[in-house]
Amino acid sequence: MQLPPYLETMGNGTLLGADGVATIDLPATLAGVGDYAMAGMTGLKTVTSAAATVPAVGNDVWWGVNQGAVTLKVPAEAVNDYKSAPQWQDFLVTADMLPGDVNQDGKVDVGDINSVLAIILTGGTSDAALRARADVNNDDNIDVGDVNAILAIILAQKAARRHAATRRVTR
């Protein structure tokens, strides 16, 4: 499940009891998670947080979830912060690549779209790591859905920059 790329806060009980969700992608803009926001998500296997700053959490955000059996992928520079943050530290915290950075150049842009299109047009790739990077929407297929997911990331980055610039101007 991919949350909106501009989401800043998850309210109390947002996904309470969503036990059929196996993966969830938290956007880089997420700053806070409310009480019981993801409680009862017993099918959860992987959480990916693009936030380089550990989001603040409310009470018992993952109540009922066996966090020790769930992988939490975070930006490499934030691994230690997540490993020491209350509630986040209970996951299997690992470093993750930049979501959408298929060609591993450190940014998400049209080059990543071209990489996905090349895979599609050549009928796939035998490189498992490349397949994992190219499956941006995590549906186990490399197709136009992944191109759209990269476009959404690019547009969200532009919106976030525009929003940040507007906030600086209005203060």
Describe the structure.
By secondary structure, this protein is of the alpha/beta class. The protein contains four helices and seven strands, in the order ββββββαβααα. The strands form two sheets. The chain has a four-stranded parallel β-sheet with strand order 2-4-6-7. Strands 1-3-5 form a three-stranded parallel β-sheet, with no helix packed on it. β6, α1 and β7 form a beta-alpha-beta unit. The protein is globular and about 45 Å long. The model has no long low-confidence stretch (mean pLDDT 90).
Provide the descriptors you would attach to this structure in a database record:
171 residues; 4-stranded parallel sheet; 7 strands; alpha/beta; 4 helices; 3-stranded parallel sheet; globular
Task: Please state how the strands of the largest beta sheet are arranged side by side.
Answer: 2-4-6-7
Q: What percentage of the residues does DSSP assign to strands (E)? A: 5-15%
Please, how many helices?
A: 4
Sheet bearing the most strands, described? 4 strands, parallel
**Mean pLDDT metric:** 90
Number of strands: 7
What's the shape? globular
State the end-to-end CA separation: 35 Å
- Give the C-alpha Rg: 17 Å
Order of helices and strands: EEEEEEHEHHH
Q: Look at the helices and sheets and give the structural class.
A: alpha/beta
Helix content: 25-40%
Give unreliable regions as ranges.
Answer: none
